[in-house]
Amino acid sequence: MLAGFKKFILQGNVVDLAVGVVIGAAFKGVVDALTAGIINPLIAAIFGKPNLDNVGTFTINNANFSIGVILTAAINFLIVAAALYFVVVLPINTLKDRRSAGEEPGDPTNEEKMVALLEQIASK
User: Fold this and answer.
1) CB atoms within 10 A of CB 43
2) Domains, in order of start, for the chain
3) In Å, what is the CA distance from 85 to each residue of 23, 79, 89, 95, 104?
4) C-alpha–C-alpha distance, residues 40 and 117, integer Å
5) What is the pTM (predicted TM-score) of this model?
6) How do residues 31-86 score in pLDDT, each as one tens digit?
7) What distance lies between CA 104 and its chain's CA centroid?
């Protein structure tokens, strides 16, 4: 039972997921700083309020609605997504493209090269 759990934990996609969660949590600080340092002052300059949380608020039958809270969450999501894309995804995709550009479809794989080499050795 423990061997199966160990195999599951050590699979590449589980480790990749864990790294992604940690990186995402680390970007929270960056997003919070960007929001507090740039976005909220811009909002204050445009709307005259310190942040979007109070923009578009209204009350119906003593129930408070705030469109600004949704806008704040959407902006934070877009900042995190953009940061992850430009800092992690784009460089990795560029490296993958560069690696695959050096390999032609007609080139023999390493396994085929090894088999050919072993056949040469065996024929001698």
Assistant:
1) 22
2) 8-123 (1.10.1200)
3) 12, 10, 5, 14, 28
4) 65
5) 0.53
6) 778 877 887 788 778 877 777 777 788 899 999 898 888 888 888 788 778 877 88
7) 30
